Amino acid sequence: MATLPERSLIDKAADLIRGAQYLAVLTGAGVSAESGVPTFRDKDGLWDKYDVTTLATLDAFLADPAFVWKWYDWRRTLIVKVAPNPAHDAIAKLEARMKLAEKGFALITQNIDNLHRLAGSSDPIELHGNIWKVRCLKSCRKGAAPFDLLDSPLKEIPPKCPHCGGIVRPHIVWFGEMLDPEDIRRAFEAAAQADVMIVVGTSNLVYPSAALPYHVMEDGGKVIEVNLGVTGLSGDADVVLTGPAGEILPKLV
């Protein structure tokens, strides 16, 4: 386990947060990993075991929807067994405190597992979608917008649109697809307003989310990084807190 940061660094980060008028939080897979959600890019991650071209592209889905849905159904059965950890809870508490003080707050996440919402975060910007939501593949009038599909395991594979009977797809951003422009707009708008951003559990390699901390810094804002190890952001962040998010973030709160 990584060594927890010195108390002086915790205090420095807490002072930055306390003085912020607008706090943004950016989270990655490392936060969910502490709840037991499998990651993709780490050693023994999901991409080491499965071929992305057969599971996480639109072409793969169109070729065999049932095959792809079986994999997502399996992933959902893993995720439904886990719960938010202290890092998720701490982020929800930070949101509540900022709002109580009538200050700005935004949570931006690369995670699709819905754990932030379960912890009490009110309106996370889910850049990569949500595994518990689906949308109609035909984009029928009522099914084009994402809607909940919470059954686990699924009652039928592939699941059907309740409005038109067509196949639904997971509300996930697959490889080769663009992120939702509205989510991108909201994320960069939050970064532009933030005078402090906490970046938690991400390698900061995937764009455009990797650009968000630098967007904050360009306008004179401060960046706090919380991670188990060194990332590409570590040399630029104002405060680097090394250790488990589930131990560090509660200390900040």
The N- to C-terminal Cα distance equals: 22 Å
Number of helices: 11
Show unreliable segments: none
Structural class: alpha/beta
Short note summarizing the structure:
By secondary structure, this protein is an alpha/beta fold. It has helices spanning 7-19, 29-33, 46-49, 52-55, 58-63, 65-79, 86-100, 115-119, 181-193, 212-218, 245-252, and strands at residues 22-27, 104-109, 125-126, 129-136, 147-148, 168-172, 196-200, 222-227, 239-242. It has a six-stranded parallel beta sheet with strand order 3-2-1-7-8-9, with helices on both faces.
Describe, in plain words, how this protein is organized in 3D.
The structure is a single chain. The protein is of the alpha/beta class and 253 residues long. The protein has 2 domains: 1-37 and 84-128 and 180-253, Rossmann fold (3-Layer(aba) Sandwich); 39-81 and 130-172, SIR2/SIRT2 'Small Domain' (2-Layer Sandwich), CATH 3.30.1600. 38% of the residues lie in helices and 17% in strands. It contains 11 helices and 9 strands. It has helices spanning 7-19, 29-33, 46-49, 52-55, 58-63, 65-79, 86-100, 115-119, 181-193, 212-218, 245-252; strands spanning 22-27, 104-109, 125-126, 129-136, 147-148, 168-172, 196-200, 222-227, 239-242. The protein has a 6-stranded parallel sheet, sandwiched between helices. Strands 5-4-6 form a 3-stranded antiparallel sheet, covered by helices on one side. Helix 8 links the parallel strand 2 and strand 3 (125-126). The protein is elongated, with a radius of gyration of 19 Å. The chain starts with 6 loop residues before the first helix and ends with a helix.
